[in-house]
Amino acid sequence: MATRQTQSLARLMRAPAIILLLIWMIVPLAMTLYYSFLNYNLLNPASTSWAGWFNYQYFYTDPAFFEAIWNTLILVLGVLCITVVGGILIALLIDKPIFGQGIVRILVISPFFVMPPVAALIWKNMIMHPSYGVLADVAKFFGLQPVDWFAQFPLFSIIVIVAWQWLPFATLILLTSLQSLDGEQMEAAEMDGASALSRFFYLTLPHMARAITVVILIQTIFLLGVYAEILVTTNGGPGNASTNLTYLIYRAARLNFDIGGAAAGGIIAVILANFVAIFLMRAVGKNLD
Amino acid sequence: MARAVSQNTKIGYTIAAWLVALLIFFPILYAIITSLKTEQEAIAGFDLIPSFTLESYREVQSQYNYFRPFMNSVIIAIGSTVLALIVAVPAAWAMAFAPTKRTKDILMWMLSTKMMPAVAVLVPIYLIFLKTGLMDTRIGLVIVLMLMNLPIVVWMLYTYFREIPGEILEAARMDGATLGQEIVHVLTPMAVPGIASTLLLNVILAWNEAFWTIQLTTTNAAPLSAFIASFSSPQGLFWAKLSAASVMAIAPILIMGWFSQKQLVRGLTFGAVK
Amino acid sequence: MKMTIRSLMGACALTALAAPVMAETLTIATVNNGDMIRMQKMTAPFTEANPDIELEWVTLEENILRERVTTDIATNGGQYDVLTIGTYEVPIWAKQEWLVPLNDLPAEYDTDDLLPPVRQALSVDDTLYAVPFYAESAMVMYRTDLAEAAGVTISESPTWTEIKAAAEAMTDKSKEQYGICLRGKPGWGENMAFLTAMANSYGARWFDPEWKPQFDSAEWNATLTDYLDMMTNYGPPGASSNGFNENLSLFQQGKCGIWIDATVAASFVTDPTSSTVAENVGFAQFPNKEGVDNHGNWLWAWSLAIPASSDAPDAAKKFVAWATSKDYTAQVAEAEGWRAAPPGTRTSLYENADYQAAAPFAAMTLTAIEGANTQKSSVQDIPYTGGQFVAIPEFQGIGTAVGQQFSAALAGQMSAADALTAAQANTTREMARAGYPK
Asked: Hey, what domains does chain C have and what are their CATH numbers?
């Protein structure tokens, strides 16, 4: 009796969120799906017509398409690598007894609060600029030719900026996990003569596994959608060297005003994102119980 | 670590940690420094000592009254988060305490809705906003950002609520508590920290959202993301001014983040890391 | 906007017979460049003369503004009453009937005073659809002191050979002194604006009359090869991310010998408060290749237009007429000196002795603007209009994609031939998609 009552109450409580998200997901998705079968350019609405599969075929045969998927993967994996490895190292360091730990922690998490376009502007103009950036000044100080980051290493530059934004997030989570590590166990291992390295690999790392999973899961969702940093810095270039899938769709929608093509790209991206989601959930979902 | 560490080791770690922290903070610090320079100083090469002029801030303020976008950001960020919590708390509650076979699937599906690229659905949403009169209104943005962050909110709350031991509920029920009493007296106090950190993280996410907030506003509801968009790359390189605008756009959330760091740690991890 | 009016109407209804004038709010979308920002601060005479009109500003960075405004006008959104758009958008949007015709401006506006090429660029079938706030063509700006020291002269109407020789002579990389600075940052309005003008002056064209892309032509090959050659040998480092702003800074700091760009730059490089080389700037016409009678035909005008979806077109007309009037120019001159007057739009400004005295670049700017032919920008037959761009809706996307290839070539990541092949393939593909020839 109580259970049934609870169950129906639970259903009632769940319903608003699920219904809202369903609407939020299905209405735009249905409209996007519809547009993806239209020849619909915002700048020429009069000549809108049925396109069949043409938009998909067009998007898929874009020479930039596979490059964009590849860049998306590199971007996500690159940022994940830097943030996870960097996050672990910084977390280990901050976890040590140090003076002013609170302030250090505050400084380290700050980049997370910076809006993506602002972060990109700061890096582009004040850090990586080949004439006026700090890195150029450093290079000149050592008598070297300043590096033109966005022209020579476009994707890498984007990865650095995005990693800078997400490093605090990873550090914070890993640090929290580290702080719950059993000190006694650690000490016992040390007594037994385990080296610092093996203590790290056999005790610390397994303990952090769950935290690392969380970092990977959440970051992947946000990293797949990175575009503001690209728009502000390289515009996807030179060539297509720093174009990811989201930016490719952005380009179709906002530069070409090609609603049909962008919609088709959007549907393709949703499908790919869901593959990634399913894969991620299968791989790491269990760890979250 | 309970053991005493020698003073030297501690100093060594301190230096290393401060170096890393300053390196990470440097871009923000440099933006703050640049905002206090004159435009000539700003492009004159590396210099950590500005002339401490507030001219750039004055100019930014005279060009775009900061107060309105600031208030819009506050209202939109807090409004969308509160609204999301109102919808999400019951849902997460139900999922945590009365899970069905499909609960997990639903949760995953919710998260996957976050992966849809926003720009692909811009035109449909734009048309809906025009038809319903939500264009350039704060309530319109509150709704969009609420829906955008709802999956994350549900997820976070779900994991928090799952940490609340079921035995406590049973004990309360044994004592003859009604469902209402159970919620008010037993569960809510335990859930407050989780709800607080969820609130915080989502305020940050909503504050930093810069696509919908620019595309769906003109004047009345434009928040700080639009404010910054009116200063990026104008004619000439006005980096001091741009830095001043950047600092003004991120300062409120940065200060708030600093003060609420502890809750954040909890919130960011979906409670998965204890 | 709508909300404001509705609530105002409500208020009026409540106070019954009260309100003699009903305030209207104009929402004005502008770009964040210096002249527009100045205008926002100088609207007092207008609002005093029109107490029933309130002005609301939406100031955005150029690209965001373009996205925002295009979405609104294409969906008939009606969010704006006045738009700041360029010579690229005006003919395209006018053909869609998205803009209010401006043929009925009051006589004191003196439409005939507008410089003919500018007026033509903002008209479709002799109907004016936008009024110019300021206009620009392109010209050569160079350091007279460096030229003298290097023993070279640049004539009033130089050829590319001459420019190249001068750039070579003025280059001294050990002193961070680069012979030539040109745009390299990808974008249809960035490097492609320059390269399209340069290609025009080489006798190249974007499309043949059947809309077939022409990047496989000898003219384009010569254009790109010479551009890359000059920039690699005599240009500054990191040129592939330099746009107008970056080059302006470089020139003001004395790092460029020659800079070929928009004529509006002239007032910045000769401004002693921000330019270290203000005293030593010479001007010349946009170069051409020997035997090609074409100086690029660059013409751009930031202009004010009224969307057909505006619910206050009459108030908007009053405003655009005021903001681009002779009175406004005089007002700016009074406040900040004649050199700061919005250039390039009116004959009367160039006949003004005060302006000629204050602006040493006036004559060359006028020559450049008057010489720009946007109706036929190439010496060969072409099916399109537009000077440093092609006035078709697809050009933003195509131009930017091509700009990416050329920028990659400048960054040394591909050869000129590869960049041209990629540009040709990309443009062919996009044009087929858009259904050309139409």
From this structure: 2-136+300-358 (3.40.190.10), 138-298+367-433 (3.40.190.10)
* Domains observed in chain B: 7-60 (no CATH), 66-230 (1.10.3720.10)
* Contact assessment for residue C190 and residue A241, using Cβ atoms and an 8 Å cutoff: no
Q: Find the CB nearest C61 among B39, B63, B229.
A: B229
Asked if C142 and C261 count as a contact pair (C-beta separation under 8 A), the reply is no
According to DSSP, the residues that pair with C135 across neighbouring strands are C301
Distance from C-alpha of A211 to C-alpha of B274, rounded to nearest angstrom: 9
Edge-to-edge strand order for the sheet containing C256-262?
A: C178-181, C256-262, C138-143, C281-285
Subunits close to C (at least 3 CB pairs below 8 A)? A, B
CATH tag for A62-257 (out of 1.10.3720.10, 1.10.150.20, 3.40.50.2300, 3.30.420.40): 1.10.3720.10
- Taking only residues 69 to 98 of chain C, the set having a beta carbon closer than 8 angstroms to any beta carbon of chain B reads 71, 75-80
Cβ-defined contact of B234 to C40 (cutoff 8 Å): no
* Domain ranges, ordered by start, for chain A: 62-257
- Best residue of A153, A235, A247 to probe chain C, by most C CBs closer than 10 Å: A235
Can you read off the two tokens belonging to residue B15? 């230096």
Kindly state whether C246 is in contact with chain B, defined as any CB-CB distance less than 8 angstroms.
yes
The string of DSSP letters for A53-66 reads THHHHHHHT-HHHH
- C-alpha dist (Å) from residue C14 to C7, C23, C25: 11, 15, 20
pTM (two decimals)? 0.87
Interatomic CA distance for residues C133 and C22, integer angstroms? 28
Q: Give the 3-state secondary structure of chain B.
A: CCCCCCHHHHHHHHHHHHHHHHHHHHHHHHHHHHHCCCHHHHCCCCCCCCCCCCHHHHHHHHHCCCHHHHHHHHHHHHHHHHHHHHHHHHHHHHHHHCCCCCHHHHHHHHHHHHHCCHHHHHHHHHHHHHHHCCCCCHHHHHHHHHHHHHHHHHHHHHHHHHHCCHHHHHHHHHCCCCHHHHHHHHHHHHHHHHHHHHHHHHHHHHHHCCCHHHHCCCCCCCCHHHHHHCCCCCCCCCHHHHHHHHHHHHHHHHHHHHHCHHHHHHHHCCCCCC
What are the 10-residue block averages of pLDDT along chain C, 438 residues in total?
A: 47 42 84 86 92 91 87 90 95 93 93 95 94 95 95 94 95 92 91 96 96 96 97 90 87 93 91 88 95 94 95 94 95 91 94 93 94 93 94 90 92 93 93 84
For the question of an ipTM over 0.85, the answer is yes
CA distances from A145 to A139, A140, A238, A265, C236 (A): 6, 7, 20, 40, 12
